[in-house]
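Q: what sequence does this backbone want?
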């Protein structure tokens, strides 16, 4: 029996749908306040839903009865300093609970980490799975939570856990709507005057789910894999999206000092309004950095071919245009 955590989220929903498309019967957990996505409602005859928070030991253990495979997608994603302590506690302690139950029931685990848990590379160097964060970045609370959560999985592996870790780059897809990574494209649709010169890796959410299923069904264990389709310059990504959205692409470069002013101004406004900042410090700094990721380890391991990012961008923009 398969268990999926975080099945009401962006990646978890797509993973659950792909499992259902294989006509598999499986179990998903959700919090009492979470809503089952419309995309999964046609497959309710295949999905057994259980209410369980990953921090609730008793409810989570009940959900593990008869489980042999676990896809751990659940995580709290936030870049707000106010969320630092509760988010780290939720993600790390929740992952520890999942790991402990996998050990107890002998279940195989595929854990979703992030490139945020991988170290940075030197100029002109591709970042691979051997890059490790030399120190925890104090201001990047998301990176802290993903790194420490991944450490719980490695702790389990040392204790005999059969597990594989995936480290996706920026996950994009039309089903994100205007939330998460979808904000990038919605911002372009509304109009942007500036572009940044940084680079980063991007991957389609459908590909991440496919990779997870292929790794689960493989005999690979005690490994981590960067899941990254292509490395894109932010200017090229924004320009491509603008062309698909039929809006004007930005023509002015945002210098690092301008991004510094932007995040500080956004933080001040957020403090006044109580809303999330339009841009945070980590995003502002990352937007001008060159970070390119090596995807060769995964390709060699399972022979995976990624969907071109421009196709995903086109699909995202088509949906945004229809919704506007």
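A:
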């Amino acid at each position: 029996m398969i268990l999926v955590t975080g099945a009401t989220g962006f990646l978890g929903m797509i993973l659950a749908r792909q499992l259902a498309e294989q006509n598999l019967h499986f179990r998903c957990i959700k919090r009492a306040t979470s809503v089952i996505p419309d995309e999964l409602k046609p497959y309710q005859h295949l999905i057994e839903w259980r209410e369980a928070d990953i921090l609730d030991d008793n409810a989570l253990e009940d959900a593990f009865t008869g489980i042999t495979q676990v896809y751990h997608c659940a995580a709290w994603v936030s870049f707000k300093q106010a969320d630092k302590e509760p988010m780290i506690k939720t993600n790390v302690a929740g992952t520890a609970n999942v790991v402990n139950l996998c050990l107890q029931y002998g279940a195989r685990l595929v854990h979703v980490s992030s490139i945020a848990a991988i170290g940075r590379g030197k100029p002109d160097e591709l970042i691979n799975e051997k890059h490790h964060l030399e120190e925890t970045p104090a201001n990047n609370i998301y990176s802290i939570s993903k790194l420490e959560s991944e450490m719980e999985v490695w702790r389990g592996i040392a204790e005999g856990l059969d597990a594989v870790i995936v480290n996706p780059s920026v996950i994009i897809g039309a089903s994100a709507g205007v939330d998460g990574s979808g904000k990038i494209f919605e911002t372009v649709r509304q109009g942007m005057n500036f572009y940044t010169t940084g680079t980063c890796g991007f991957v389609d959410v459908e590909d991440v789910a496919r990779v997870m299923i292929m790794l689960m069904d493989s005999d690979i264990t005690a490994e981590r894999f960067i899941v990254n389709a292509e490395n894109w310059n932010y200017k090229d990504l924004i320009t491509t999206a603008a062309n698909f959205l039929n809006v004007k692409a930005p023509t002015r470069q945002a210098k690092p000092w301008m991004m510094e002013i932007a995040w500080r101004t956004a933080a001040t406004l957020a403090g006044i309004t109580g809303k999330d900042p339009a841009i945070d410090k980590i995003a502002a700094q990352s937007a001008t950095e060159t970070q390119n990721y090596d995807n060769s380890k995964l390709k060699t391991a399972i022979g995976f071919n990624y969907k071109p990012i421009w196709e995903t961008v086109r699909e995202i923009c088509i949906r945004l245009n229809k919704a506007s």
